[in-house]
Fold this protein.
Amino acid sequence: MVISFNSIKGGVGKSTIAANMAAWLHKQGHDVLLIDGDDQETVSDFTAWREQTLGNTGYTLVNMTGLNLRKQVESLKSKYDHIVIDTGGRDTTSQRAALTVADIAMIPFVPRSFDLWTINKVLPLIDEIQSIRAVPLIVYTFLSRADIRSADNREVAEALNGFEQLTFLPFPISNRKAVSNAAGVGLAVFEAPDPDKKAVVEIEALFNHIINGSNTSTTA
């Protein structure tokens, strides 16, 4: 399965979640390729720290940008159980290439009105991509960096749930320090020495739904 993390706005936690998913898929026993298609190279930095912290990454990392991304992913699909692609936080050639080759697109939104405004740019992009694909792209949206308790969460969730081009997933990723602290040393949140159980449950619920169609956590 090819899973692309996309956004046309930075600061939504996209790269951190993509890196966590690559680590989580490895934990489940899968052979995983993580593609850094973002010029900022956030998941590359994460992986460098990961190798320094753990001694190995557990997955394969490559950097790909531009139109070449689509051709390379097509040629590599048969060699891995899953491919996770992180793209830049704007409408780029790399992002469009990822959307044309992915099975699933994950589009996070921070529950703020000015983040939701970007939906007016996201929807035309998705419509354009769908029009040139032989097999429809599955497009999921979810809340990222959400407040622990906020009416904004509910309001933005209701808004996202109203767009027919998107499937809203009710598995928010809260804005917890544990996630960024772990990522800062190349670890997924569930790999931290003293993991935040609530953060682990959130991220595994999202990943389990994507891969297994289930929101059951694998954490004891």
